[in-house]
Amino acid sequence: MKKFLHFIAAVMIAVPMLAAAHGPTRQMVEEKIFIKAAPDKVWAMVKDFGGIDKWHPAIAGTELKDAKTRVLTLTSEGNPTITEELESSDDKKMTFVYKILDMSVVKTITFNSVDTPYFTLPVANYKSWFSVKAVDGGSEVKWKGKFYRSFMSNPPVPEGQSDQDAVDTIKAVYTAGLENLKIIMEK
Amino acid sequence: MAKQISLAFIKAIFKKVAFFLVGMNMLTACSTQPPSYAFITNQLDDSVSVIDIATQNVVKTIAIGEGKRPAGIATSKSGHQAFVANPEGVDIAIIDTNTLEVTNHIPVGAGPVGIASNDDGTRVYIADWYQNIISVFNTDTSKIIATIPVGKSPAGLIVDDNQHRLYVANRDDNTVIIVDTEHYDVLNTIEVGTAPFGLALSPNGQLLYSVNVQSSNVSVIDTQQTKVVDTITVGEWPYCAAVSPDGHTLYVTNQDDSTISVIDTRSNSVTDTIDVGNSPDGIDVTEDGQFIYVVNWGEATISVIDSATKKVISTIKTGKGPRGFGQFITKKQ
């Protein structure tokens, strides 16, 4: 009986969490790379909001819904998608800002008796800044993102959905993209 | 003989005066006991940086405990303790502001983030991000004496002792609520902008400012009419705010612009925008109103702004991931 009461108590605590917030701590990732190519050429490549698949190896295709909205299809299993919106783009400063509007659900598991989705990336409220800067002998490309983990409730956190997992995933996305951009632009 | 006596008498008087003067000197040199400090929670370093306001130097880094992830901070007007909310440690840490040592950890809730104290430090209110409650902590008995159900994801808190009120920003309800601190009842629920996080209160308690993260504005609430009387557009992704001691100026951190909006509270208009470090988060004003301390979460520094010139006059290094979410500057005793 006591155990049962504990269970009821746990459920009562768990239920309001369903609609709860993202993790309480905003996260940030910033990656930079030097590319031996003219800044205007690099900028021309990256500013094309519908053309990220030309240089990012994890992105199989980009579909522009309108000038400011793109749907990315990833190369990974099941071809998950990410819908992103361009917030602003500045040719003079060679910067653009975009955010994630929506992502596909890769799988759903039952965690602590609650249906828990896994999205394409384990992040929420993702916003990103991309910039190209002229430096000695080429360009410095910077990709910065701020976001929260996607998991809504308090710890324990399901596998792959911690703050650290969110940071590691975004870092891997940025590094892979920037390294390939460097290879393409320096060819 | 008479001469000798008088000499001894004069010497004795002199000694007393000298002692008194030395005593005075010491008081002046140390200002008071203890001096005014800024307590900065370093979330990713599990520590608190203590900055002496007089010298603008870090005088100590206090370890809070591995994996505690300190975020919220509360100081009181006349108490000698600072209170740290640890969302991952699921407790609060109490710091003695004389010795700068952690004296106690008190388990509370499931995700304590926002925290505020009453004026004399006898009651501390802790917002729980996950459980949607405010816990009331009695510092004399070291016990949680009440829990108050509030809205979704309560964040910023402000206590007004004069009005016996606690103000709570419910981030995921887009509301600010007024709680009676005598009966722990919710008196009013006020709709504000999207995702209210930080709160600031005018010194006379008349106006409450709610910083709305996702609508990039500040709701101005008249605390007597209990309604929003104005809305001020600020920078991108604003987080926290602080009011000058004369109540005439409001400072707001714009996390995604890396700026501070300076607002004239008589016209509710932005008069200046000051560049600070990367991703400003918490903010507080010194007791005399001379300096504004801005906690730059993105680069682990404090920008110290001179309120007269509205310029950053120094940059102080903190631990990783500093938040300073709450009133983090102590008053001189």
Structure summary:
The complex is a heterodimer of chains A (187) and B (333). Chain A is 26% helix and 43% strand.
What does this structure look like?
The complex is a heterodimer of chains A (187) and B (333). Chain A is an alpha+beta fold and 187 residues long. Chain A is elongated and about 55 Å long. Chain B has 333 residues and is mainly beta. Chain B has two domains: 30 residues; 287 residues, Methylamine Dehydrogenase, Chain H, CATH 2.130.10. Chain B is built from one helix and 27 strands. In chain B, a hairpin with a 4-residue loop joins strand 25 and strand 26. At the A-B interface, helix 1 of A face loops of B.
N- to C-terminal separation of chain B?
49 Å
Number of domains of chain B: 2
Name the CATH class of the largest domain in chain B. Mainly Beta
Shape of chain A: elongated
Shape of chain B: globular
CATH superfamily of the largest domain in chain B: YVTN repeat-like/Quinoprotein amine dehydrogenase
The name of the CATH architecture of the largest domain in chain B is: 7 Propeller
Number of domains of chain A: 1
Q: What is the element string of chain A, with H for helices and E for strands?
A: HEHEEEEEEEEH
Just name the CATH architecture of chain A.
2-Layer Sandwich
Radius of gyration of chain A, taken over Cα atoms and rounded to an integer in Å: 20 Å
Topology as H/E string of chain B?
Answer: HEEEEEEEEEEEEEEEEEEEEEEEEEEE
Oligomer: heterodimer
Distance between the termini of chain A: 71 Å
Order of strands, main sheet of chain A, comes to 1-9-8-5-4-3-2
Q: What is the helical fraction of chain A, as a range of percent?
A: 25-40%
Biggest interface and which pair forms it? A-B, 15 and 23 residues
Low-confidence stretches of chain B: 13-32
